[in-house]
Amino acid sequence: MTLHESNSQEARSGASRCRLLPLPGQGSVAELLRLMGLDCVPTATDGSAISASLWRVRRHTVLFHEGARSDCLYVVRSGSFKCVKTLEDGYEQVLGLAQVGELLGFESLHGGRQPSAAVALEESTVYVLPARELRDPQRRGPLLDAALHHALVDKLMRAAETAEMMSAVASDVRLARFLLWLSERMGQAGQSRRRLSLHMGRRDIASLLGVAHETVSRSFTTLSDCGYIRVDIRDVEILDFDGLRARARTTRGHSGNPDSDAVRSASVRGRGPEVATPGPPRGGRSSLPDPGALAAA
Amino acid sequence: MTLHESNSQEARSGASRCRLLPLPGQGSVAELLRLMGLDCVPTATDGSAISASLWRVRRHTVLFHEGARSDCLYVVRSGSFKCVKTLEDGYEQVLGLAQVGELLGFESLHGGRQPSAAVALEESTVYVLPARELRDPQRRGPLLDAALHHALVDKLMRAAETAEMMSAVASDVRLARFLLWLSERMGQAGQSRRRLSLHMGRRDIASLLGVAHETVSRSFTTLSDCGYIRVDIRDVEILDFDGLRARARTTRGHSGNPDSDAVRSASVRGRGPEVATPGPPRGGRSSLPDPGALAAA
DNA sequence: CGCGGAGTTGAAGCGTTTCAAACGGGGTGG
DNA sequence: CCACCCCGTTTGAAACGCTTCAACTCCGCG
User: Fold this and answer.
1) Is the pLDDT of residue A100 over 70?
2) Residue A42 has what pLDDT?
3) If we measure between CA atoms, which residue out of B79, B34, B282 comes closest to residue A59?
4) Under 8 Å CB-to-CB from B28, ≥6 apart: which residues?
């Protein structure tokens, strides 16, 4: 794989989008593969014939628009993005964030249009891979192929986490989960888990969490009053991880004290799915219809 | 690729879990690849060395448990599943549905544990692929490789749709979006778009939508009173698609006059994302914020 | 037949939304 | 340089909608 050295890219994009600057001579193929989750480091040539580019994206600029027929797959190298969908009435729905190592614009792999726009929350850089070439298994070498697989599965797992985050009930619980989720992300990216830079306004956070932006503001002060966090507009410091985690675990029920709980719970008793081992008493027993079985082939 | 012919599966699984029945001689490799989204039909042999199985899963039984170290990837062949996470207090959080053609247990591709359990909502059949073999690009032939790619991207797109569905504000809007989303899914699977079988109780729908189950019940009667749908417990008929769609479009904030604050719309003006054409003056290059450091790879 | 679960509906409590106002910072223009 | 304005943030107060608790019906099942 060759790291594309600017040129044609710059030519293609008229003056109207020079905000996406190619950064010649900056990145490396090894870094790209590592970003995508590949453990092993490529020795020299991996045999792939993909021409990747490295772009710079200024904060608050769009990487691609909603509905755009972008034919590129992006890998976030630094910074972060929000994926937003603008509804008919002008309301901006934030559907998720993409941070270092995450894929953006994967819909282009199917040749479709982008369902949402991607906007940089901060100064960011992305690797740009032409989807046309990427769709051909021949042109992706084995390394890029494995990396793409890994990145896709990883993105899928992050999407599931996002869903879990948004499934909270109370607004401050949602915010607590969001902060812990962000903290985890920052930690994985090698940054501090305690000090967070949100890079988003209350309105964006509110949209992502599905509440009014005033409610987000109130939830911030609530968590702050509890001593869990210290808030300075867009900079948050987590003071009490355990407290914050306890709050994040709160489910359908009261929001005041996470401790004074009885066994009432929404309860799962009774007719639930016929949990493993319908025969013998609910004893331990290993779970699962051991799928290892079919490996016997 | 060979379609595994039962045997060992039945033997190993005691009477306690015979609910997962292999179905010898039923499926076909062509069907599996088609399910995963591959357009072209495999001619004869595709060169892959994966041993797939076909299992039957009875309704209300679990395909795999939360936290299980399943080493299999599943492809839904018929029926549907819910992905649930059981919280500490026993509350069951439904995180999503998996319908015909969708992947289940993709976390096994990374060797991790399942973050949620999968429970059949109805009589279902799944193809079972050993993740151990699947992780080896050599053993997946080009066809299965392409199919896996397609299925991963497809699942990713469906996850985004789910997030969008759950981002609604009002409960009846959520329900409207859910029904339309389900209708679309059923249509894509070749079934009726008008007549839906939910196969879930109100409690599960409520968990998926993030509201109380009584609220779901009320929302059903609301939509029914509007004449949009006809409800018979778990069978729903959509009577007025346009009306239901209009209700589903309802968002937070100004729904009355889209023109009153026409210019305001978060889209192009003011501080919003500096949409297109910041102009050449923005000037070239300048240094990377920070990541330049890690480019040293 | 009676039990238990699912679904529906009603009434009350309360959290969130909405409307409104005030504060503060960052930018522009005088 | 300061004033001013815009916008994001915060906080308050009232209205709404959802949640919760409760009662009731329907249905399957032992």
Assistant:
1) yes
2) 59
3) B282
4) B3
Estimate the crossing angle of helix A213-225 against helix A202-209, to 10 degrees: 100
Question: Which bases in strand C are touched by protein, i.e. have an atom under 7 Å from a CB?
Answer: 4-11, 15-20
Q: What is the pLDDT of residues B63-81, one digit of tens each?
A: 999 999 989 999 999 999 9
Q: Which residue of B has its CA nearest to A135?
A: B146
Which nucleotide lies at the shortest CA–C1' distance from B212? D19
Alpha helix ranges (H) inside chain B: 8-12, 29-35, 131-134, 142-166, 171-188, 202-209, 213-225, 241-249
3-state helix, strand, coil in chain A (%, to 5): 35, 20, 45
Give B280's pLDDT tier (boundaries 50, 70, 90): very low
The tokens for B183 are: 């209708």
Q: Do B110 and A78 touch (CB under 8 A)?
A: no
Q: Check residue B81 and give its pLDDT.
A: 98
d(CA A104, CA A81): 9
The set of long-range contacts for A37-46, using a CB threshold of 8 Å and a minimum separation of 24, is A37/A101, A37/A147, A37/A150, A37/A151, A37/A154, A38/A143, A38/A146, A38/A147, A38/A150, A40/A143, A42/A143, A46/A1, A46/A141, A46/A142, A46/A143, A46/A144
Where is B278: in which H helix or E strand? Answer: none
Sorted by sequence, the CB contacts under 8 Å of residue B117 that are 6+ apart come out as A273, B62, B63, B64, B65, B66, B68, B83, B84, B85, B86
State whether residue B181 is helix, strand or coil.
Answer: helix
Residue A99: name the closest of A115, A116, A75, A117 by CA: A75
Strand D contact nucleotides, protein CB < 7 Å: 6-13, 17-22
Determine the residue of chain B that is closest to A146 in CA distance: B137
Residue with tokens 């949009």: B228
Question: CA torsion, points B193, B195, B199, B202, in degrees to nearest 10?
Answer: 100
Rounded average pLDDT over B3-25: 46
Contact list in B for residue A267 (CB cut-off 8 A) is 90-91
- Contact between chains at B110 and A150 (C-beta distance less than 8 A): yes
Encode burial over B145-182: b for 16+ CB neighbours within 10 A, e otherwise: bbbbbbbbbbbbbbbbebbbbbbbeebbbbbbbbbbbb
Residues of A within 8 A of B288 (CB-CB) are 23, 26, 56, 78, 123, 125
Q: Is B45 exposed, middle or buried (0-12, 13-18, 19+ CB in 10 A)?
A: exposed
Distance B272 CA to D6 C1' (A): 13
CB contacts < 8 Å between A and B, how many?
Answer: 264
Give me the pLDDT at residue B50, please: 83
Measured between CB atoms, which of B84, B109, B266 is closest to A90?
B266
Among all chains, which residue has been given the structure tokens 């639930």?
A272
Q: What is the rounded average pLDDT of the residues A18-45? A: 73
Q: Looking at residues A2-27, what average pLDDT do you find?
A: 49
> Which CA-bearing residue is nearest the C1' of C25?
A233
Tens of pLDDT, residues B195-208: 999 999 999 999 99
Do the Cβ atoms of A291 and B89 come within 8 Å? Answer: no
Residue A141, pLDDT score:
86
**pLDDT higher for B293 or A105?**
A105
